[in-house]
Design goal:
This protein has helices at residues 13-33, 52-57, 60-65, 88-97, 114-124, 150-157, and strands at residues 44-48, 81-84, 143-147. By secondary structure, it is mostly helical.
């Protein structure tokens, strides 16, 4: 939807796909280097925890074309799932630009394992509430989960799979 921060990144599909492919290559390589065992070439993207940013920025198109599901984190092992803060494409961008108004060197441009992210959330809470409040509203302020093992999701929601 025009003007929605959720959909604006798709205005230039060619540039978006190029950046997405670069980000996915980085995510996969980093995940493997950190002990992950991806079973698919690309992850399924999800949001870890409830995010105020999505609540504030969800427009009618987003609400009509998406669904919310609570999936227990216990479905996954450290070999199945990785995390970035915020959205992986934004995290890489923030790390590249290092804008002092927004850049958090402990979080941006980094991939986190399941134990690391659980520890961060246990000690700090979710971003956008008690920390990570300095991002402009056009940038997705949530923890992104990258699910590299689709089998767990298919089994949980009882979908047939290949």
């Amino acid at each position: 939807m025009e003007g929605s921060p959720i959909w604006e990144r798709f205005k230039d599909p060619r540039a978006y796909l190029h950046a997405r492919r670069q980000t996915e290559a980085w995510l996969r390589a980093e995940f493997i280097a950190r002990g992950g065992q991806p079973r698919q070439p690309y992850p399924i993207y999800m949001v870890f925890g409830r995010t105020r940013w999505l609540d504030l920025n969800a427009d009618p198109v987003t609400l009509a074309t998406t669904a919310e599901m609570d999936i227990p984190i216990s479905l996954f092992t450290a070999q199945d799932i990785s995390f970035t803060y915020p959205d992986s494409m934004i995290s890489r961008l923030l790390a590249e630009r290092k804008d002092p108004d927004y850049y958090l060197p402990d979080y941006h441009g980094k991939l986190f394992t399941l134990p690391e992210m659980v520890s961060i959330v246990a000690s700090k809470g979710l971003p956008g509430i008690t920390w990570g409040n300095n991002l402009p509203p056009t940038l997705a302020n949530y923890i992104e989960a990258q699910v590299w093992n689709q089998q767990n999701l298919f089994d949980f929601i009882h979908l047939p799979h290949d």
